[in-house]
Amino acid sequence: MKKFEEELEKFFSLRVHSSDGISENDLFEGIENEKTYTYENRKKIIDELWESKNYSVHKEFPRPNNHDICYSMFWNAFRDRSNLYIQMEDIRSLKLADGEKIVIDCSLFSVQMLDYDFMMFEAMDSDERYEAMEFYRPFIFGYNIEVDKEKLDELKDIQNYFYKNERVEEYAQLLFKCSFDLNKHNIAYMLDGWVIQSASPIDKIKAALAIIEDSNSTRKVIRQQLDKYKLDAKNVKKSNDFISELRQELDASITRVNIYKIGDGNCVYLETEDDKSNFFYDFGYNYKHIPQKNNTAQKYSKSVDRMVGRDNKFVILSHWDMDHIASYAVASKKMYSKKCFAPDCVDAGTNAKRLAKYLDMKGSLIRLDRNESGKLIGEIDITTGTILGKYKLYMGGLATSVDRSHANCQGIAILFEFSTKNKKLLMMGDVNYRSFNLARIGLNKTKPKETEFADMDIDYLIAPHHGSQHTGYKLINGASGKSGEKAVFCCKNDSSVNRPNKDHRDELAKRFKEVLTTERDTNDADRVKIVIDVI
What we know:
- The protein contains 15 helices and 21 strands.
- By secondary structure, the protein is α/β, with parallel strands linked by helices.
- It has an eight-stranded mixed beta sheet with strand order 7-13-12-11-10-9-8-21.
- Strand 5 and strand 6 (about 200-215) form a beta hairpin.
- Helix 1 (about 5-15) packs antiparallel against helix 5 and helix 5 (about 110-125) crosses helix 6.
- The longest helix has 15 residues, at about 150-165.
- It is globular and about 75 Å long.
- Mean pLDDT is about 85; it is low at about 290-295.
């Protein structure tokens, strides 16, 4: 038996579906402390048990697939069969207005899930690399919490309670031990939200989750083990090298823009003149919506089916938030072999880092150094074919007074200038207007003509951050920019959750002839389509 197959059998037989009924707590009893509760020690215990019970001559192993293993691990997590943790953004400095609601997107993972990932990463780095790459695909296990001002203040209190004596890096993902078993543990705080799980398709499950007090807390040692998701810092590109690699893929002008109807998420498919260089700007999918009667995954199934069926050459990610990358979970495996150009994901949650790690190990991921923020990253001229134009890529500058998320501020925005008819298309991801202005100004001590957003001539705009109020939208107007044709919000058009924000929409309406939302104004059933007349 090959080593990879044997490791799969060990994991499935002794961790996921123990034939002897051994619980994970029994397996690792007595090692739950900082020095011993490591992946290496857990693996050693499993290896010793495997040898002592002579499992290597076990009856023929009914080999599961990745999907089977993932859903078994999800099942175990719900039944408290493995220590469970939640990764949550640090919201202690976040403020909400009265009546405002947001959805906090968290990563969940069990120790089983960590060890499965680590086992697979080791196999992908061995001489059985091909088998492991083909077997595995990144999965999602997360938790969404809708909060208003009152709930946010409660979460701030619990974050302060757990972290008052710990040094936590600013804007880090905070880690808490948790459980779905509400009768077994000392509960510090109850969460009422939705589990998001996927090894394809994406499921949403209403479930209460308890943050638990644990005298033998393993948070610190588990946080250290998350370093295994880190990518090699040597492979991060400076702007010149990043643009040089992108230039090899991006070699044709845009003719059609498809902005998909996926709620408050971002997925834009750009069709090019030669129809061979088509690419995605973000590959997201919104599973954050709070379902009332129906699972919203079904609401956007037509859009997702169309998206994942497209033939693209590569992907540019604005940043690593799940609503900009989640369609990878339901895409065909060939999507993972397409080049993916993205900012570095140092502050992302585990679900995003799992995807990044897999893409990186496949050799598909090209990461841009986040220290390159607040400037024009580079330009790519299109000089062949009947349409000539220029791509300009910007990385936003930090403007945390507008949006506290570093990932949003330091996302990649794309400006395409059609030279034949002097038209411009701007796609902003979640980069707010202030962050974009900082990138436009860059290192210039004096502002050149048409530097800031309000001074630019923009014909087509994909507006930032799904119509959020946290965009610095007052910077849209007030200068000399001409009236544009269309501005599009990638959002569900729901005033009860402020998407899009009315003031943001009103400012764009002063500037553009049409202001559309993907939810309301689809000219096909699944997307807003813009055909650009440039010939």
